[in-house]
Specification:
Layout: E1 8-10, E2 16-18, E3 22-23, H1 34-46, E4 51-53, H2 62-71, E5 79-84, H3 91-105, E6 110-115, H4 123-135, E7 139-145, H5 149-157, E8 166-170, H6 182-188, E9 192-196, H7 208-216, H8 221-230, E10 235-237, H9 244-251, H10 260-269
Parallel strand pairs: 3-4, 4-5, 5-6, 6-7, 7-8, 8-9, 9-10
Antiparallel strand pairs: 1-2
Length: 282
């Protein structure tokens, strides 16, 4: 049976993205692993995982260099996301950081550029830099990462803050706090959610109930965890893997349709909080 198409999400600027992409956190930390890591990303591209997320923070630019190796000669096939450190996110600092990322990535444009988390620089300055980078054609759009609801409200009060397209956050079955108010708020503002660590760095995979549900669906625990996120409106998941077989496993999560009974069990095993809790980070 052919693989089901990866669902897509249309951002408010009209761009259409796959809701399943590839993360690169912890890539680029060892030069000896670069060929294998780049090959894994290329395998994902071959399977339709055309969204790649990286950051200047990851191995201090090393992950961006791995991405450059993976996408060489294939720039038109993918949607590239990178991030600026908060301490670099002054008006000029953001522009300079973007230039460095472009050089490491070997491209002339980043499709989506994110502020990695809140820092000391005023949001107005960072947003002004993002808008300048858009005007200059260095980025296609911008967003934020690790912003809680109050941060998002503050951002929306900044000039051009409404142009934020994405909030990348820690979100998975065992971290459902964002479902209480952050995700609904972002949906109201037309801001997509990008979920990092969607399988909790592998820790979810040993949960007995998740294993049982996976067996019932002829799937793996990772696929169930990803399928849950893919079923949430306005959510993009970006699992990271350096192994081609794991990348293929992640890709196949788009073929999994969770039954109502499975969703009810997931609600029992991984209950959503009943009140607002601060956004978590790792």
């Amino acid at each position: 049976m052919p693989a089901a198409p990866i669902p897509t999400l249309r951002l408010k600027n009209g761009a259409e993205l796959p809701t399943l992409g590839q993360g690169t956190w912890m890539m680029g930390e060892s030069a000896s692993q670069t060929p294998a890591e780049a090959a894994s990303l290329r395998h994902g591209l071959d399977l339709g995982l055309t969204l790649i997320d990286t950051a200047e923070m990851y191995a201090e630019g090393g992950a961006e260099k791995v991405v450059a190796e993976a996408i060489r000669g294939r720039r038109d096939e993918f949607y590239l996301v990178s991030k600026v450190y908060p301490w670099n996110a002054s008006r000029q600092g953001t522009i300079d950081a973007c230039e460095r990322s472009l050089t490491r990535l070997g491209v002339d444009r980043i499709d989506l550029y994110l502020l990695h988390w809140r820092g000391e620089h005023p949001l107005a300055d960072t947003v002004a830099a993002f808008e300048q980078l858009k005007t200059d054609g260095k980025i296609g759009a911008w967003g934020v990462s690790n912003f809680d609801t109050d941060d998002m409200r503050e951002l929306m009060e900044v000039e051009n803050g409404e142009n934020c397209l994405v909030n990348q956050i820690l979100y998975n079955l065992c971290r459902r706090g964002p479902e209480v108010d952050l995700i609904p708020y972002c949906r109201d503002q037309g801001v997509a959610i990008m979920a990092y660590s969607p399988i909790e760095q592998g820790k979810l995979l040993s949960d007995p109930e998740l294993i049982r549900i996976a067996k019932a669906h002829q799937a793996t625990p990772a696929q169930i965890a990803l399928a849950y996120l893919l079923g949430q409106a306005g959510v993009i998941a970006i699992p990271k893997s350096s192994r081609p077989e794991r990348v293929a496993e992640n890709r196949a999560s788009a073929d999994v349709t969770l039954t109502p009974e499975a969703l009810a069990t997931l609600d029992e095993v991984f209950p959503r909080p009943t009140r607002k809790i601060p956004l978590e980070m790792i």
